[in-house]
Amino acid sequence: MADVERQRDGERQHGGAARGFRKIVTDMEEASGGELKIKFNLGGTLSINAANIASSISDDVIQLADDSFYAGAIPVAALATLPFLTNSVDEVHKVMTVVRPIAERDYGKRAILVLGYYVYPPQVFWFRGNITSLDQVKGRKLRVSTAEQGDFLKRIGATPVQVTSAEVPAALERGIVDGVLTASAGGILAWKDLLKSSYQLGVNYHVSYIVANAARFQKLPADMQAKLRALVNKNCTELSAELQRDDVELRQKFAADGMQMTAATDKDRAAAAALAKTTADEWAKSRGPEAVDSLAKARALLGR
C-alpha cells in the first residue's frame, strides 16, 4: 500500500499528464480483453534517463512509453515545439500534420510505433523573484527542457541551464537557476513552493508521443491493433483538452495562493516572436533540407 500511495503522490505532483497516461494504460488493458498486462511506472522510477526513452523502447527494456524528450533521437519532430511558431493548440495540430509522418518514419527506423500524441499547455516563465517583463528576463538563468528554448533564451540575453526534472528543486534552492520554463499543468506543480512569480509569455507548446515497441505491438491481432490505436488517439485528444483546462484553473489557483502572475504585453510578444523567427530559421538550416522544407510547410499552414 505504501508503494501505491507513493505512486499516487507522484502522479499528483506530475499533474494531468501522469493521470492521462495511466488512463491510457488502463484502457488499453481493458480493450485487449485481458490479453495485455501493462505495469504503469511513473517517470523517473525506472532509472531510465528521459532522453533514453526511445532507445529503451527499441531495446525492449520497456514496451510502452510517454516520450517527451525525443529531440535527440527524432530531431525534426522538435519542429512542432519551436518557440513562437504556434500560438494555440489548434495551431499545433496543424503543424503536426507535417511533423507526425516524419516522426512516425524516424521512430519506425528504431523499431518503434507512434500510437498517438498529446499537447501540453504553453510553457511560460516562472521565477524565484518577481519578474514582470521580458527585459527583466535578461541576465537570468533559466532551466529549459529543449535546446530550442535555450537558443531563444540566448537571443534575449538570458542563460539556459539544462537539469533533469528531479534536479530542479535543488537548482532553485541553491540559485543554480533563477527560474524555469514550463507549463502550469506540467512540472510546476512540484516546484511552485519555490517560486514567487510567473511572467505569462507563452514561449512554446510541447508535444509528447505515446510510443510502443513495434515487434511487441505487431504480435497482437490486427483488429486489436486497430482498436488500440483508435483508443490511444481518442485518449490523447481528451488529454490535450484536459491539460488546457487544468492550465487555466491552476493559473487562477496560483494567483489566489499569492503567486504574482503577470500577463505578457503585446510589445513583448512581438519582440520575442521576431527573435524566435531567426532561431527557427537557423534550427531548420542546421538540420538539413527536410527540416527547411517542413518549416516552410508549417508556416504556410499557419499563414505566416
Structure report:
The chain has 304 residues and is of the alpha/beta class. The chain has a single domain (2-302), classed as D-Maltodextrin-Binding Protein, domain 2, CATH 3.40.190. Helix content is 49%, strand content 17%. It has helices at 2-14, 16-31, 53-58, 89-108, 147-155, 168-173, 188-191, 214-218, 222-256, 266-287, 289-302; strands spanning 64-67, 112-127, 141-143, 159-161, 179-182, 197-213, 260-263. Strands 1, 2, 3, 4, 5, 6 and 7 form a 7-stranded mixed sheet that branches. Helix 5 (147-155) links the parallel strand 3 and strand 4. Helix 1 crosses helix 2 and helix 2 runs antiparallel to helix 9. Residues 1-13 have low confidence and may be disordered.
- Looking at the overall shape, the CATH architecture is 3-Layer(aba) Sandwich
Going by helix content, strand content and strand pairing, the class is alpha/beta
Question: What share of residues is helical?
Answer: 40-55%
Q: In DSSP terms, counting alpha (H) and pi (I) runs of 4 or more, how many helices?
A: 11
- Mind summarizing the main beta sheet? 7 strands, mixed
Q: So, the CATH homologous superfamily?
A: Bacterial extracellular solute-binding protein, family 7
User: What's the gyration radius in Å?
Assistant: 19 Å
Q: How many β strands by DSSP? A: 7
Termini separation comes to 53 Å
Fraction of residues in β-strands? 15-25%
The shape, in one word, is globular
Q: Within the CATH hierarchy, at the fold level, what is the topology?
A: D-Maltodextrin-Binding Protein, domain 2
What order do the SSEs take from the amino end to the carboxyl end, as H and E? HHHEHEEHEHEHEHHEHH
CATH class reads Alpha Beta
Mean pLDDT: 90
